[in-house]
Known about the structure:
Layout: H1 3-6, E1 10-15, E2 24-30, E3 33-40, E4 50-57, E5 61-66
Parallel strand pairs: 3-5
Antiparallel strand pairs: 1-2, 1-4, 2-3, 4-5
Amino acid sequence: xxxxxxxxxxxxxxxxxxxxxxxxxxxxxxxxxxxxxxxxxxxxxxxxxxxxxxxxxxxxxxxxxxxxxxxxxxxxxx
Length: 78
């Protein structure tokens, strides 16, 4: 999958992200299913938190930041 297809998508933390260079894991809805990616963030992000993909790195690693969904809407992807 191309980087441009991941950046801007929202997902859910499935393994807490400790912050910095340490990795956690997220799940993204893709192509009618879901896929998991290793993820890192500047600050810790807890389990089940919504996140926004801001960059993709090699080896199925993405950079994320916390995401606050708009009230009354589903966790939609771009």
